[in-house]
Amino acid sequence: MTGMVMIVTGASSGIGFEVAKYLAEGGNDVVMACRDPEKGQDAVRCIKSILPNSLVTFMQLDLASTTSIREFVRDFLRKKKKLSVLVNNAAVALNFSDLTRKTTSEGFELTMVTNYLGPFLLTNLLLDCMIQTSNVLGEGRIINVTCAAHNQEGGWGRGRVDFLHTKNFQLQDEGTYNGLQAYKNSKVCGLLFTYYLGELLQGTRVKINAIDPGTVPTTELLRHAGKLQQVYSLFCVDRVLRPCLSSSKKVHEAAMQIAELATSDKFEGRSGKFFRDGLAERSSIESYDSDLQKAVWRISCQLVNYRSNLVNDTLDDISLSSLK
Fold it and tell me: How many domains does the chain have?
């Protein structure tokens, strides 16, 4: 897949930047969707200094704001570009030990909206464009970047995190919030979304998959985390434990995996899968709960005020106010 229009979120640094660079090297028209305009434009200039003829552009996008997402989609659609690939890479991890819940001006819990609700809305608003493009140019691909932290049973924070509860979707109940639980919930929601939308897109030429690119301590994912958490990630994990961790990757290695999933012919026709190290694997038991997938879809539509053309059911048993 070359010469296609592709969007990469969180592309100003880290994995997202490297993914955008790899895709640009393939001759693709890459939109680098970034929250910070200055960093986004610097990233474009950096890639163009390496690849002078590359087709890379910056567009401002704040995934923590539904207003920003809708403005981004409107501006993108005005360009009349035929979108083939969307890489939902942007994410944030707050201090895992923090018990103080952070919310946006729209009332969303910051981690859940940045890592899941924002990408959910962005993907759905671009779906019609992607389906139309795929009918003309061939298979379209949506890539949701996740990680091992989605698995409550996998030892990643075992004893400190619980399963996702739909009636406490944004950890709004008193005494239930901590940074690690919020991060885990957002990542499992990304998988629930991947699997459910994969089912809904059957019969179209748009495919959706999730990928765990491995542990990459040197990205800006932990930019809002506590100093001790950042130091541990950078020095202890990156320099001491990396040789012992099969899942640990350097930034360019992780980015290559994502770029391959987005473009390689060997993944053609694959949809609704979870990939790690180039292979389809099983994710957490929780992520395959079909009732939970449907409930999270309905909750998400209501929270971001989106009416899906793919599903007509509505959430009747939980009020919107109780979810925030």
Answer: 1
